[in-house]
Amino acid sequence: MSTHVHPTAIIDSGAKIAPDVEIGAYTVIGPHVEIGAGCVIGPHAVITGHTRIGENNRIFQFVSLGEIPQDKKYAGEPTRLEIGDNNTIREFCTFNCGTAQDAGVTRLGSHNWIMAYVHLAHDCQIGDNTIFANNTQLAGHVHIGDHVILGGFTGVHQFVRIGAHAITGISSVVLQDVPPYVMVSGSSARPYGINAEGLKRRGFAPAAIAGIKRAYKTLYKSGLTLDQARSALSEQARDCAQIQLLVDFLAIPGRGIAR
To answer: In this structure, what CATH number is given to the domain that contains residue 218?
Structure first.
């Protein structure tokens, strides 16, 4: 056995694991699992299902990755979990595989910081560079854009979309879509401006942030209907390219936006 694998770990012979992967004590890895180079898997982890994990991920103890979805319609289809590169996944996280009723895959992108006790239900699609604080809970079919920050104990309703650069406050209950750049909080979550501090940290120019603030006021403070606001935002996007992300998000029908 590899010197990187603890002798008490149970690894199915069908698993495909890069030679330098470190695997802790009592971890169990199933036959359809693939783990890329540079990963570190802590003790007592269970990785099962048709799960593919990229490179340089740090996965802590007591996680459950790739288990069957918590969906009564699931009938044993070979659905998947896919995890990108350079993610941190802390203790007691649970990520389920997808369902045949959706894309058949649950995805977590790259460079994400996933804190303890986070649940990703079936068919969730998570982008890159996100931060999910402790006890964030995502129901099925949730889509999360890049650079989203979810505060601790945030709960997200099934089929909700949260756009890139959005942020939620602690204990938020998100029942409707959150547009890009918007900051929401509460139960149910309501908008409280844009994530200006996050945009500054990511290098957005002052003019771009000012344009996004104007777009927020158009969407939430102008008294326009959603159709009217979309038309106005399309005009504003000509002067501020970053607003196009908001325009594209609003063009997709969903659960309605948080207001």
So the answer is: 1.20.1180.10
pLDDT of 252 reads: 94
The CATH number of the domain holding residue 84 is: 2.160.10.10
- Asked which of 114, 141, 168 is the last residue of a domain, the reply is 141
Is pLDDT above 60 for 1?
A: no
Q: Which residues are catalytic?
A: 122-123, 140
CA angle 131-229-224, nearest 5°?
120
DSSP letter string, the chain = --TTB-TT-EE-TT-EE-TT-EE-TT-EE-TT-EE-TT-EE-TT-EE-SEEEE-SS-EE-TT-EEEEPPS-TT--S---EEEE-SS-EE-TT-EEE---TTTTSEEEE-SS-EE-TT-EE-TT-EE-SS-EE-TT-EE-TT-EE-TT-EE-TT-EE-TT-EE-TT-EE-TT-EE-SBB-TTEEEETBTTEEEEE-HHHHHHTT--HHHHHHHHHHHHHHHTS---HHHHHHHHHHHTTT-TTHHHHHHHHTS--S-B--
- Confidence (pTM): 0.97
Q: Which domain holds residue 42?
A: 10-141
Is 128 contained in some domain?
Answer: yes
- Mind listing the pLDDT tens digit for each residue in 130-169? 999 999 999 999 999 999 999 999 999 999 999 999 999 9
184-230: pLDDT as tens digits = 999 999 999 999 999 999 999 999 999 999 999 999 999 999 999 99
